[in-house]
Amino acid sequence: MHHSSLLITLFTFMLSAASELIEVHGVKNAGVRPRLELRDLAANTAMLNLFLQGLERFQATDQSDPDSYFEIAGIHGVPYRSWQDISPRPGASAPGYCPHFSNVFFPWHRPYLALFEQSLYKHILDVVRQFPEGDERDQQRKVADAIRLPYWDWALPLKSGPIIPEIMSNKTIVVKRPNGTEESIQNPLYSYRFHPHNPDELNDNVLKVSLSDQLYQFISTKRSPTSSPADNEDAPEDLKAAEERFSTGIQQKRDRLFNLLWKNTTYSAISNHGGQADNFEEIHGWAHLSIGGTNGPHGHMTETPMSAFDPSFWLHHAMMDRLIAIWQRLHPETYVEPQSQDFGTWAYSVRSTLDANSSLYPFPKSQDEMWTSNEVRDTRVFGYTYVELQLPKIQDIKAAVNTLYNDNPSFGKRSMDNGTRVYDPTADFIEYNANVAIDQMAVGGGSFAVYFFLGTFSQDTTDWDYDDNLIGTEAILSIKAPHGDSGPSLITGSVPLTRSLRARWENGRLESLDEDKVIPYLQEHLHWRVRRSSDGAQVPVSRLPSLAVSVVSSLIRPAQSEGEFPRQLTDTKTHPEVVDHNEGDGDLS
């Protein structure tokens, strides 16, 4: 029997005596509207006012209600139990429903976000009903019908302001109630406060993922806390450190993001670790760790089982859904392919094969069937789209992507009369990358990061995130699984080197950007280190046999117009001499 058919049979059997299910349909009867970038939504006073009050009501819903913020967030991980009694694997003990490191990772999140969006919309309509009857209420309803879950674009150019916008970082915010009074409330985009706070319910008593810092003891969600809950159950947060982590790595992540959007490959390769050097799931993990914290005490976004309780989770995953949707529009010929699962979940067995027709648990399309990846391939099925997808031509979408994310780091060197080195953005150039592969369980199951430096760097690991010679990180958002619910899972990623090499050529530290000069320079100056997130300790490379680093290059032709993408002119070339020269470089000194 086909695996998905078996799951459907089990699912139907287990629901035979259950009550009516909450079906996932997104926002209905309001047309297809675009999800806006968070700052754009915040600029619309009427939209923001309804959105905040709707989210406030949503978060205040009784935590025992399956349609509550708490229960919907809990689908992702803890508390480890079935949502709406949807559990096709009796006795399953794997971490939540979310299929990390899977070919259906992003399709699974599409109905998940739609469920959150439809529940939020219901509460927004409750706010609208409190306005005086007549024209005012009618106008508020029109505003409400246009609201969709906003996305947080953490890859906007730095000139756009703080990467973590104030609407996310202010603890309180003023709203205008339907009766016309203004009121300062706890900002529902800042945190979620558990009510009641039941540590035993949140404790990861199956996998013990969070016992290192007892994250479940915090009474509200935290971002980069300065102490553990053992010291303070409502510990203060260091959002400045989170902002610095984002800003230090943002240029490299913008390069990675643009490379993923323009390079031709398969959906399975770019969506997760299905065989390509870089993928969207790895970039997604970097944002999780950057806002949650990576050095000692850390917040909910760093721990996968609890991440969905932080409001930033939903804004971040809307961003990832948007990126995938744009990629799909640019590459419509490829989608989810069959793939064996490295990890089991509450619904899928380890080593089972999932494809585009496999059921996406626990998201009912109707009372007797789940959504599938094929059925959620188009976002409009859930009543939303993105601004870029509304553009009429592929060239227009490419132009929009170029405007947002292409910093055009291409260069053809030439010297001016005064000897100043400049780059020519129209010339072909050699692109350099450091590719990484490592088992996601390499440090024992906790999250960690591989840091790349080009030059000397601090021996104090707490300084690494802000080191002047840090050129990129590969952040591994790790998960644990019970014995038998996981297999080997090699995570891959890529750190762009081109921008950093160009900067060193411009300031005279690198003689040329040709391979005969760059490769010896990398042999001398490229270093990598591994740091564990739970305590900020360095992990010697000699203890990480699965870690593999490679330096590669290829010749790139820049886009010839704003409606075009760059083109790769040569096959990718590997330079083993860089890694061979630096073998053992990451050991403790």
From TrEMBL:
Keywords: Copper, Melanin biosynthesis, Metal-binding, Monooxygenase, Oxidoreductase, Signal. This is tyrosinase. Belongs to the tyrosinase family. Residues 561-589 are annotated as: Disordered. Residues 100-117, 310-321 form the Tyrosinase copper-binding domain. It comes from Pseudovirgaria hyperparasitica. It is an enzyme of class 1 (oxidoreductase). GO terms for molecular function: metal ion binding; tyrosinase activity. Residues 1-18 form the signal peptide. One of its GO terms (biological process) is melanin biosynthetic process. It comes from the Eukaryota. It holds the Pfam family Tyrosinase. Its EC number is 1.14.18.1. Its cofactor is Cu(2+). Residues 570-589 have a biased composition (Basic and acidic residues). It catalyses: 2 L-dopa + O2 = 2 L-dopaquinone + 2 H2O; L-tyrosine + O2 = L-dopaquinone + H2O. InterPro entries: Di-copper_centre_dom_sf, Tyrosinase/Hemocyanin, Tyrosinase_C, Tyrosinase_Cu-bd.
